[in-house]
């Protein structure tokens, strides 16, 4: 199921934070495409991606320099790296469809804080679940999983126009957004359970436990950051 448009009701504010995050992701991806070799791209992923063994065992490969020499910053820089067109395309589509309304409801500053906290918790969840992995994990999908969880709580009755492939036929049904998001989370959770104890295979993407961690963080955090009903979102 590919979301194309949602119907949560009228939006009150312009989503400049969401669009800025989206634009920065695209700019960084263009920079990735400009690198002269696969080795240079691989070095970028190891330097700015989340490598669990660097946190759990202090094993930083020779020649790899975390951003500013601060390893913990990779929990943020990794959110702006992607491993291919499908990776960034799917992530930015979900951010574009669902992020504007979450920002509208939380307010600009609170949405920015919410996004990065979800992404950081997603990265920490990935490290905890894959402590022995030396593969860099990259992508915005952990933070976007938090956005989906917030959307589920804030707009439980919203409808989403989707693209569904049935063999050679494709249809455009309008389905409950809650169904799409819950279905997505269940598939991620099942994938995470079945992968426990197996070798980590992230190669250019965010592992499923990062999705689960980001989603659960968003589910809880949105209740803390949501403005009171009489508090104007435009004040943030």
Assign the CATH architecture.
Up-down Bundle
Total beta-strand segments: 4
Give average pLDDT, whole number. 88
Q: Regions with pLDDT < 50 over 5+ consecutive residues?
A: 198-206, 230-236
Radius of gyration: 18 Å
CATH homologous superfamily classification = Rhomboid-like
Backbone shape:
globular
Largest sheet: 4 strands, antiparallel
Instruction: Kindly report the oligomeric state of this protein.
Output: single chain
**Number of individual domains:** 1
Helix and strand run = EHHHHHHHEEEHH
Beta-strand percentage?
Answer: 5-15%
Structural class by secondary-structure content = alpha+beta
Q: What do you see in this structure?
A:
It contains nine helices and four strands. The protein has 236 residues and is α+β, with helices and mostly antiparallel strands. It has a single domain (2-227), classed as Rhomboid-like (Rhomboid-like fold, Up-down Bundle). Strands 1, 2, 3 and 4 form a four-stranded antiparallel β-sheet that branches. A hairpin with a 2-residue loop joins strand 2 (159-166) and strand 3. Helix 5 (85-106) runs parallel beside helix 7 and helix 6 (108-129) runs antiparallel to helix 9. The longest helix is centred in the middle third of the chain and has 22 residues, at 85-106. Mean pLDDT is 88; it is low at 198-206 and 230-236.
């Amino acid at each position: 199921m590919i979301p194309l448009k949602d119907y949560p009701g009228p939006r009150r504010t312009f989503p400049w934070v969401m669009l800025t995050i989206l634009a920065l992701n695209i700019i960084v991806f263009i920079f990735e495409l400009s690198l002269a070799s696969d080795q240079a791209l691989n070095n970028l992923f190891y330097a700015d991606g989340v490598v669990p063994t660097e946190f759990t065992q202090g094993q930083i490969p020779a020649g790899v320099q975390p951003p500013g020499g601060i390893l913990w910053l990779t929990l943020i820089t990794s959110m702006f790296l992607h491993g291919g067109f499908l990776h960034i395309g799917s992530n930015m589509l979900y951010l574009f469809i669902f992020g504007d309304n979450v920002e509208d409801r939380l307010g600009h500053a609170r949405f920015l804080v919410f996004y990065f906290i979800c992404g950081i918790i997603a990265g920490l969840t990935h490290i905890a679940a894959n402590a022995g992995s030396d593969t860099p994990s990259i992508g915005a999908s952990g933070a976007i999983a938090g956005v989906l969880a917030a959307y589920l709580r804030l707009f439980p009755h919203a409808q989403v126009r989707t693209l569904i492939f049935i063999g050679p036929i494709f249809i455009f049904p309008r389905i409950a957004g809650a169904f799409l998001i819950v279905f997505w989370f269940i598939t991620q959770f099942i994938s995470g359970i079945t992968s426990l104890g197996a070798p980590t295979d992230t190669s250019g993407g965010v592992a499923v436990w990062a999705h689960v961690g980001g989603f659960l963080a968003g589910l809880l955090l949105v209740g803390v950051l949501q403005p009171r009903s009489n508090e104007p979102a435009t004040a943030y």
